[in-house]
Amino acid sequence: MADILEIDGLTAGYGPLRVLHDVSFRVAEGERVGLVGLNGHGKTTLLRAVASLVGWQSGSIRLAGREIGGTRSTGPGRRTPGIVRAGLAMAPQGDAIFPGLTVAQHLDCGAYTPKAWAERRRRREMVFDIFPPLRKLEHALVGRLSGGERRMVSVGRALMVEAKLYLIDEPSLGLAPKISASVIEALFALPQDGRAMVIAEQNVALLSGRVDRMVGMHAGRLRGDVGHVSLH
Ligand SMILES: Nc1ncnc2c1ncn2[C@@H]1O[C@H](COP(=O)(O)OP(=O)(O)OP(=O)(O)O)[C@@H](O)[C@H]1O
C-alpha cells in the first residue's frame, strides 16, 4: 500500500517556540492511525503543520506524493486551500463552531471543493447516517446544540469532502465518556474505502482496538508504535 502522507524531518513551532523536533511519520492509504500523548506535547501542532496552519515549519510533508511542506514564508493558512484541494480534510480541536449558522449551513462550509459542493445534499445525508441525532437538528442553530452534537457537526463538516486523508483532533475533548465513545464509534463505522485517518487523542482507551496503529507523541517527538506502552 502506498503512503498517502510522508513527513520527513519536520520541525515546527510558534514565534520563538519550537514545538516539533525532527518528526518523521508515514500514513498508508486507507490506514487509521491514533496519535496519542498528553496535553501540550505537540499532537495538535503536528496536525496543524500538515494543514499549513502553524506559525512556522521546515522539513518535508508529502500528501499523495506532492510536496505540501517546506519552509513557508507566506504565513499560516495561505497554502491551506490548495492542500484541501490536494486531498486533506481536518476536524480541528475544540469544534471551531459558528454559533449563528444552522447545522446544514455549517456542514456546507466543509463542502469546500467544487465536487463536494455539487454533492453537498448527498454528503449531508451521509453525515446524518453517521450521526443520526443531527438529522432532526438540520435547521437548528449550532450555538444551541449540546457539546456532543457540536462535536458531531465539527467532525461531520470534515467528512463533507471526499479526502484522501482526514485529520481529526481530539474528538473526545470535553465530552462525557458515553458521548465521546458514541462519536468515535460513529467515526469508525465509516467504510474505510481508501480514506486514511489520523486521530489525535489523549484518551488511548478510546482508540484501542479500533485503529491500525498508534504512535505516541512526547515533547514534540514521535515515539513510534506505542500500542501497549503507558504514556505517563
Ligand atoms: N498558537 C500558539 N502559540 C504559541 N504556543 C503554542 C500555540 N499553540 C500551541 N502552543 C504550544 O505548543 C505546545 C504543543 O501544543 P499542542 O497543542 O500541539 O499540543 P497537544 O499535544 O495537541 O495538546 P492539546 O491536547 O492541548 O492540543 C504547547 O506547549 C503549547 O503551549
From TrEMBL:
Pfam families: ABC_tran. InterPro entries: AAA+_ATPase (IPR003593), ABC_transporter-like_ATP-bd (IPR003439), ABC_transporter-like_CS (IPR017871), BCAA_Transport_ATP-bd_LivF (IPR052156), P-loop_NTPase (IPR027417). Residues 5-231 form the ABC transporter domain. It comes from Neotabrizicola shimadae. Belongs to the ABC transporter superfamily. This is ATP-binding cassette domain-containing protein. Keywords: Amino-acid transport, ATP-binding, Nucleotide-binding, Transport. SUPFAM superfamilies: P-loop containing nucleoside triphosphate hydrolases. One of its GO terms (molecular function) is ATP hydrolysis activity. GO terms for biological process: L-amino acid transport. PROSITE patterns: ABC_TRANSPORTER_1, ABC_TRANSPORTER_2. It comes from the Bacteria.
